Amino acid sequence: MKFERLAIPDVVLFEPKAFSDDRGLFFESFNQRAFDAAVGGRVAFLQDNHSVSRKNVIRGLHYQLPPHAQGKLVRVVRGAAYDVAVDIRRSSPTFGKWVGALLSAENRCQLWLPAGFAHGFVSLEDDTEFLYKTTDFYDQGSERSIRWDDPDLAIHWPVSGAPIISSKDSTASSFRQAEVFD
Ligand SMILES: Cc1cn([C@H]2C[C@H](O)[C@@H](COP(=O)(O)OP(=O)(O)O[C@H]3O[C@@H](C)C(=O)[C@@H](O)[C@H]3O)O2)c(=O)[nH]c1=O
């Protein structure tokens, strides 16, 4: 399992080692020991999520506030997505900065976002299947959403034209007005 820290170093991109043979392919999609060594601590996951999106769907930017904050380990098993992590930890030197990575069924990469990041992605193909593990359970009352097109964040989404977004995301908060992490 190769990994690299992105420009916001708490966000880690994993590239599993795949073994191909006549039958097809095998790879370890999660290894607790390798994961903990890469992120530098013991992380316990409590929930797995799976979504399917048409092309040009943007989901996000989402997070849950403490005490239900979630770290997320995200990947794509069908199609492709551009995944974005926004640092919303006020005391962080990279507060308000974002990083992105291409995740696809082909590259099998996974992105780790610890608690304290807002998360979103855009699907780049129809029927993009997005799988992720979270470190806490879903808690509707703790859920928050920041506008995907917030001008202060200025995220470069690889979309042409208007993306498809949920009604919830269309009324999301601006970054300036969002409740963030201390
Ligand atoms: C996230 C979530 C949603 N739901 C329900 C609530 C709602 O009726 C339906 C669809 O929820 P949403 O519209 O919030 O789904 P979605 O927009 O896909 O939300 C997800 O977006 C990505 C970017 C994330 O980072 C995730 O943490 C999550 O917020 O599923 C659960 O039951 N459990 C969950 O964990």
From TrEMBL:
<comment type="pathway">
    <text>Carbohydrate biosynthesis; dTDP-L-rhamnose biosynthesis.</text>
</comment>
<dbReference type="InterPro" id="IPR014710">
    <property type="entry name" value="RmlC-like_jellyroll"/>
</dbReference>
<dbReference type="InterPro" id="IPR000888">
    <property type="entry name" value="RmlC-like"/>
</dbReference>
<comment type="function">
    <text>Catalyzes the epimerization of the C3' and C5'positions of dTDP-6-deoxy-D-xylo-4-hexulose, forming dTDP-6-deoxy-L-lyxo-4-hexulose.</text>
</comment>
<keyword id="KW-0413">Isomerase</keyword>
<dbReference type="Pfam" id="PF00908">
    <property type="entry name" value="dTDP_sugar_isom"/>
</dbReference>
<dbReference type="InterPro" id="IPR011051">
    <property type="entry name" value="RmlC_Cupin_sf"/>
</dbReference>
<protein>
    <recommendedName>
        <fullName>dTDP-4-dehydrorhamnose 3,5-epimerase</fullName>
        <ecNumber>5.1.3.13</ecNumber>
    </recommendedName>
</protein>
<comment type="subunit">
    <text>Homodimer.</text>
</comment>
<dbReference type="GO" id="GO:0008830">
    <property type="term" value="F:dTDP-4-dehydrorhamnose 3,5-epimerase activity"/>
</dbReference>
<comment type="similarity">
    <text>Belongs to the dTDP-4-dehydrorhamnose 3,5-epimerase family.</text>
</comment>
